[in-house]
Amino acid sequence: MAEGILNRKFVPAGKQLFLTGDRGEHMYLVQSGRIRIWRGEPEHPVVLAEVGPNCLFGEMALIDEGTRSACAHAVEDTTLIVISGEKVRQRLADADPFVASIVRILARNLRAANDHLEGLMGQVLAVSAIKAREIAPNEDVKTLSSGAAEE
C-alpha cells in the first residue's frame, strides 16, 4: 500500500484513544490487543463493544462526518493499524451512490441505537438506585413507624 495511508500505533493498557465528541480523523483496525468502546460516565460506563484482532472501530465519525459517538480505551496493550480518514472519505465518495447511501444510513442507525442504549442504561441505574433505597433501612421508614405508634 502507498506510504502514509496505513500506519501502526501502539496503545498501552488503560490509555484513552479518543473521547465522545472528538473529531474523527482516523479509523482503526486492531492488530493485537483489545479496545473497549463505551459511552456515559466513567463511573457508570455503558460498554458498547470490546474489539480485538481483525476488528475495525472508529469508522462512524468518518462515514457520516460527525464527531466520535463514544470513547475508546485500551483494555490491554494494543497495536492498531491507523487508517486515514481522508482515504476513507475519498473511497466513500468514489463508491456507487446507492452503496454509499446505505453505509451512511447504517452509521446513522447505529448512532441512534447507541443513544437509545445509553438512555436505557441510565434508566436501569436510576431504578437500581431506587430499589436499593427501598430495601435499605432508612430514617424515613423509622420516622413513619414511630409516628404511627403514637396515634
What is the structure about, briefly put?
This protein is α+β, with helices and mostly antiparallel strands. It has helices at residues 60-63, 85-94, 97-135, 139-150, and strands at residues 6-11, 16-18, 26-41, 44-51, 56-57, 71-84. The N and C termini lie far apart (85 Å).
Structural overview:
The protein is α+β, with helices and mostly antiparallel strands and 151 residues long. It has one domain: Jelly Rolls (Sandwich), CATH 2.60.120. Helix content is 43%, strand content 32%. It has 4 helices and 6 strands, in the order βββββαβααα.
Q: So what's the CATH class?
A: Mainly Beta
Spell out the CATH superfamily.
Answer: Jelly Rolls
Which structural class matches the secondary elements?
Answer: alpha+beta
Reported CATH architecture: Sandwich
Shape: flat
Give the number of DSSP strands.
Answer: 6
Spans of at least 5 consecutive residues whose pLDDT stays below 50 are none
Largest sheet: 6 strands, antiparallel
Domain Cyclic nucleotide-binding: 1-92
InterPro entries: cNMP-bd_CS, cNMP-bd_dom, cNMP-bd_dom_sf, Env_Response_Regulators, RmlC-like_jellyroll
Protein name: Cyclic nucleotide-binding domain-containing protein
GO molecular function: DNA-binding transcription factor activity
